Amino acid sequence: FFSEQPPAHPMPLKPKGKSKKVTEAESRADAMVHSEQPTRPAKKRKSKVSATEAPTETMVSTRPKKKRKLAVRDEDVETDSSESSDDASILDEAEAELREEGLLPKKLHRRQAKKAQRDYERAKHNLDLTRKVFLGRCPPNMTNSHIYEHFKSLKDCVEHVFWPSSTQKGVEQEAGNTKRWCLVTFKSTSLAMQAAAMKPPVIDGEMLMMRWKGYDDPEKRKPGQKIAQMLRKRDELDKEEKGQWQRLWKEGNLVEPAQWTEAQLKAQPFKKDFSDCIKQQEVGQEELEEFIRSHKVDFPEGCPPPVRTFDEVDFGEAVNKIVTKKFDKPYPIQSLAWPILLRGRDCIGIAQTGSGKTLAYALPSLVHIRDQIRPTADEGPIVLILAPTRELILQITEVMKRYQLAAGIRVTEVYGGQGVNANRLTQAQNIACGLDVICGTPGRTIDFVESGVLTLKRVSFLVIDEADEMLEMGFLDQVAALALQTRPDRQTVMFTATWVKDIEDLAQRFLKDPLKITVGDNQGAVMANTDVEQRVIFVDAFKDKLELLTETLKNVRAKSNSCRTLVFVGQKYLVDTVAKEVAKRFPKCVSHLHGDLMQQTREWYVEQFKSHPKGILVATDLAARGLDIKELQCVINFTMPKYIDQYVHRIGRTGRAGTKGQAVSFFNRFANRDCGLAKDLIACIKSAGQTPPDELFQFIG
Description:
Keywords: ATP-binding, Coiled coil, Helicase, Hydrolase, Nucleotide-binding, Nucleus, Ribosome biogenesis, rRNA processing. Residues 548-700 form the Helicase C-terminal domain. This protein is of the alpha/beta class. A hairpin with a 2-residue loop joins strand 5 (202-203) and strand 6 (206-207). Helix 17 crosses helix 19 (476-483). Residues 1-20, 29-42, 46-62, 65-82 and 166-177 have low confidence and may be disordered.
């Protein structure tokens, strides 16, 4: 905490001196001088007189004498001036009447008049501003050829390049190098906006500053002004009825559905079928049956056969190189999803966490973007990815940005919470720069659509990830409101770890004739990761858990040098207690995570956990989704979850991307919640091809 600034010291007051006493002769002489020079003001003199003492004649008065006003004689005033004053008053009255009738604009205050004049001068050059892009921090050796080369992808778009002279303000001297700026005028406003959305040029290892001058137009509100206007509207709703805007926001009623006509859709067509990107080899019946049996997958009739290698799909030469360097072959969910999505069909994917679902929709979306015209800064994205938590959004964005340079796309993320990166204004400025893909939580995305910062009319590829969690957290109405902002003929993808009737109803509402693919042998609500070894340890009291936790951590740490462990605790107040007990035995490697911590603090703890090879993270279910940590060896359920799907997502933090993991659960024999979970827990262990302990069957019924 920083101390407040000390108050400024008051200026020392000038000490008041005593008034000067003069003789009667001196006072008469002074009076004669004043009478001879009536226009000269008298010098102010201070006198100190006590409250009880009456002033004497020998004291000079401290009250300054007023200047004598010069009288104007009637004969000195000409008659023409009086006539002109009458004409002026008549003109003022006529102008006042015209202003009242609306035939003349209202008379503005001096400041308002100056502002109106500035706005008028800007409006005269409105066309030029929207066609100009500002380039700053230009090195001395930069020429027009660098600019033409950088914007050559827009095909002869530059009309003129203006460089300031050395005497103008635009030139700065820094360490002997001349830092210049220039204005690039394009042939159209659309070209200028596309150019400003590109990555700034890099010359001599230094990235230039680039900005579209159209934002200087007073008629175009900047993102901060739009957000401020939205907040004022919400305050007005709260004045009418307390909590009204929160209710409307949660229901998704703060935004109106986008209206589309058949003529508009036909005028802006887009391609969904990219069958030419699939170079699939013929698959024999025996090979297909072996694939289904080994990966425990299920897909309906009419579904295209799965791809087995990266050579069978073409996501672009640069993208394919990045993918093949990291992965040897596609995961089952990817093998099934890619042929469906590249043929333009809607898809429902059901798979366990950590099975590669993100790449299953991310890579086809890159092909979808590549075929379309690059959106300008005010047209919004082409791909919208919705996820329930900020942690999952950050994970998805990280995956998409791996291919950002190779695919030539612009990706940004929007989510709520605390911290610098979660600030509305920062995120709005990123949106205003132009983007192709936006990954966001439903609530924050609704905010930007309501304020006008974000438009979704160009979205033709919609992804709803973790749909079951969306349902649990009450985001269904907001997801529906956002889906109604996009094109009705869009391609929609939905992925989920569980499949229940409510999710099925959600799919029928948003998807058109989808193909449902499933990875796992359980076609019901829960499917556990087969790469995770599940163990159940029975306890009788809370103190037994602490002793077992220490013993389990010692065993895990003894197996390998890289043995990160995630400990799940049900209540926030227990997180600090358990973390302190663990830190006593394993100092300098324990961190904690729960919802009461600030976003920046949470991110710092997660980074510390990722960087420590033997780190221990004690967390609530906040870390059950969207947390992708490499080499996470073990997950410990210190407190059993309330529902079985929470259990699936907890243990899904380990055993990701084909690696092996371990899950240890402390089952309290005398806890009603643990006993009520026994039946589902048995089914979950069996779904992974493992044998549940015999004692667990005693708690059924």
